[in-house]
Amino acid sequence: MHSELEIAKILEETNRFGADKSIIGLKAAIAILGKWGASSKQMCAILCITPSIHASAQKQTQNEWTINFDEDVIQRISLVLNIHSLLRQIFDNPKNVYGFASMKNDNGFFNGRAPLDVMVQGDLASLYETLKHVEALHAISQ
Q1: DSSP class per residue in 71-134
Q2: CA distances from 126 to 17, 47, 54, 71, 122 (A)
C-alpha cells in the first residue's frame, strides 16, 4: 500500500514524462484504489485491465515496461485520478479522503451502497456517474 506522499510523487512524475503518462497514471490509480480499500480483482474491474497488467504495474519500475492502453482504460484512469483530486479538495482528513469510497452512501444514486461498490460494476458509466456525484459534493462544500 502506498503512502499519501508516494501517491503525490507518482502524480508529480506524470507531469515530467511524456510517453509514459499512461503507465504512471495507472500506477497512481492502483495506489489510490488500494487506499480506498479495493482488492486486486476490484481494481482490475474498475480500470478494465487484466490481472497480469495489474501485477506488472505493481512490480515494474516505470522504465522497465511499456504498454499501449486503449482509450477506455485511459478514461478510467483519468476518472479515478479526478475523483481522488476532488476528494482531496473536499476533505482535509486523509481518513475521509481515502475512506469515502468504501463508506455507505444514502444519496439517491448510491442508494445505500458505497461508491466503490458502484465503481466495481465495471462499466464506464458507473465510474463517470460516481465522478459526477463527487463533483456535486465538491460544489456543495465550496
Answers
A1: HHHHHHHHHHHHHHHHHHHH-SSHHHHHHGGGS---STTTTTS-HHHHHTT--HHHHHHHHHHH
A2: 30, 12, 21, 17, 7
C-alpha cell at 111: 442508494
Q: Are 129 and 118 in contact (CB under 8 A)?
A: yes
Query: pTM here?
Result: 0.83
Q: For position 56, what pLDDT does the model report?
A: 82
pLDDT tens sequence across 69-89: 788 899 999 999 999 999 999
Phi, psi for residue 116 in degrees, rounded to 5: -60, -40
Residue 83 grid cell: 475523483
